[in-house]
Amino acid sequence: MTNIDWQPLEQFLQGANRFVVASHVRPDGDALGSSVGLAEWLDGRGQTSLVVSPSPVPPRYDFLATPGRIGHFGIDITSEHLNTYDALIILDLSSWSQLGALSEWVHSFAGPRLVIDHHVSQDEMNAVVLKDTRAESTGTLVLDAIRRLDGLEAINPVVARALATAILMDTGWLAHPNMTASTLTDLADLVKRGADLAEIHRLLFQRGTVGRVRLLGEAMARVRLEAEGRLAWSAVSFADFARLEALPADTEDLINHLMSIDSVQLALLFVEQRDGSVKCSFRSRKLNCAKLAGDFGGGGHRAAAGATLEGPMAVAIQQVRAAALELLDHALKADPT
Are 231 and 142 found together in one domain? Predict the structure, then answer.
């Protein structure tokens, strides 16, 4: 149960019939799971929805929806087509930069818009904002909205599978500290409505490619430890993807391997993008990743955050490492144990 009053969502839905459902660049399980879950629920209500992504959908998530259910903006979905819809729902983001190629269209869209999110940061997006930063995932919020507006019986197996994927991926399969007793209650409800957690796990983690395994090996071979093992970081260049026959989406879970090192308190993963910019992911069990990412124009949660920096890679690494080492030094002085 969240602290959100969902009546503004009900009023928003009553004011339109055709909805664009959008989320952030480089979509993860929460972005895609919450988007598909919400869209399928809207369709079940007799309304029309279109899920659009500013980036390609990673192959590991192809089980969430039927082919064509999620459109890639600029490839198979145009601005002209999006303009035939009445309203816009944005999920799992609260910053313009995270919209990527969709940002220009969203700026120009004349219809009403609504944001459902659980991140701390918030840009002014001229939208109704429904947010609970205590929620472990945006999928959690979508589930709560459906449960309180229409009841659990409104959740079909497709919705259940999508929302379970969102919750499980944003809690690290229940391994992250954002998991609570309510998480287990939510998953139990979704299992009752048709989510098969064992099958979801198989589809997500047991359909890997040789390229993904090669990329993991390369990234782990490059791991560097600093600050007496409290900082771990690694880097992936854009050229690595072609050389190893991997995809940018294959980097999604790599940083979790850095956090598996016993001494590590803060992990960083640098991934060079096609345009030369560098995406940095931050993970920690105790330190404030959102604040650290915010220093570089990013954001997220206390335990997990991200930012995109201008290249070249060496400069980005130097800047973030310096800030990370300073954060670790302050933390050590505050708590020498």
Answer: no
